[in-house]
Write a structure and sequence with these properties.
single chain, alpha/beta, Rossmann fold, Helix Hairpins, 2 domains, seven-stranded mixed sheet, globular, binds guanosine-5'-diphosphate, binds potassium ion, binds magnesium ion
């Protein structure tokens, strides 16, 4: 049975999309340790299951609730990730997308709220954005159902494509961090998620990842390594804290994607109110 995991920022239309893509809905209790309901549904085409994850802006959790997604990615092995993004808020939404692309399972992006983006005068070249990001992007309007069948087919297709073709995406974080990532990768166990993803999440301060890796990596060494890397990064011209430095690198990647694929035009219709 295929398992597609639905992820995205809060208020991007995840619940609307979940309802459009599934017909039977199995309530399966709460996520471990938190009071958030775990929703699993069967895809309308009966090809697999859809798991709804809590809305988050980044995988590094600010609360226990937000840690659900990281724990899920550490412990389960979803066939693919369906990432819902708000087309009118791409700059903010794509930070999570980058982290999902780094995880190493197939990703399909549902470009939702395209009606809203259009009203705001955003002209998104979906094909170009998809080429830039190296990920299938399907425009949808979750509220009306527009594009949802095509999206479901794409999510199923990505799940069953030859697994060996799916490798975690490699975005460049500059020489200091690349060195730190390599050092960490050499210490990490093979059996879990992509080592590069784990290393980056550790450097960002993702607590559930840190807790998980305590069994494999000497925590004293890890702490010292973190402090050392933090000091190196703060000495760079940017003079940033480690998580902010990582965030800025991602913002740069997103800027480049959007520069070539999104144009701001005058809204088609303006109202006086
Ligand atoms: P969630 O917080 O990610 O689960 O988002 P919801 O599914 O609850 O949607 C948030 C709000 O956006 C709701 O009022 C939806 O009706 C609305 N919404 C969802 N998708 C679309 C869309 O494609 N276009 C428009 N205009 N509104 C949408
Ligand atoms: K909501
Ligand atoms: Mg919701």
């Amino acid at each position: 049975m295929l398992t597609v995991a639905l992820t995205g920022n809060p208020n991007t239309g995840k619940t609307s999309l979940f309802n459009m893509l599934t017909d039977s809905y199995e309530y399966v209790g709460n996520w471990a340790g938190v009071t958030i309901e775990k929703k699993v549904g069967t895809l309308k085409n009966k090809r697999g299951q859809l798991v709804d994850l809590p809305g988050i802006y980044s995988l590094s959790p600010l609360s226990r609730d937000e840690g659900v997604t990281t724990l899920y990615l550490l412990d389960e092995s979803p066939s693919s990730l369906l990432n819902v993004v708000d087309a009118s808020q791409l700059e903010r939404n794509l930070h999570l997308t980058i982290q999902l692309l780094e995880y190493g399972r197939p990703v399909v992006v549902a470009l939702n709220m395209i009606d809203v983006a259009e009203k705001r005068g955003l002209d998104i070249d979906v094909k170009k954005l998809s080429e830039q990001m190296g990920v299938p992007i399907m425009p949808v309007i979750a509220r009306s159902g527009f594009g949802c069948d095509t999206l479901m087919q794409a999510a199923v297709k990505s799940s069953i494509d030859d697994e060996s073709l799916v490798s975690p995406r490699h975005f460049d974080y500059g020489p200091v961090l690349e060195q730190a990532i390599s050092t960490l990768e050499a210490k990490l166990p093979v059996s879990m998620a992509s080592k590069r993803w784990l290393a980056l999440q550790l450097l960002e301060g993702n607590i559930p990842v840190l807790q998980k890796l305590r069994q494999h990596v000497d925590p004293v060494w890890l702490q010292a390594f973190y402090v050392e890397t933090e000091a190196l990064v703060q000495k760079l011209p940017e003079g940033k804290k480690l998580p902010d430095y990582i965030r800025d690198k991602r913002a740069g990647i997103i800027d480049r994607w959007l520069q070539s694929a999104v144009r701001e035009t005058k809204p088609l219709r303006t109202t006086l109110s």
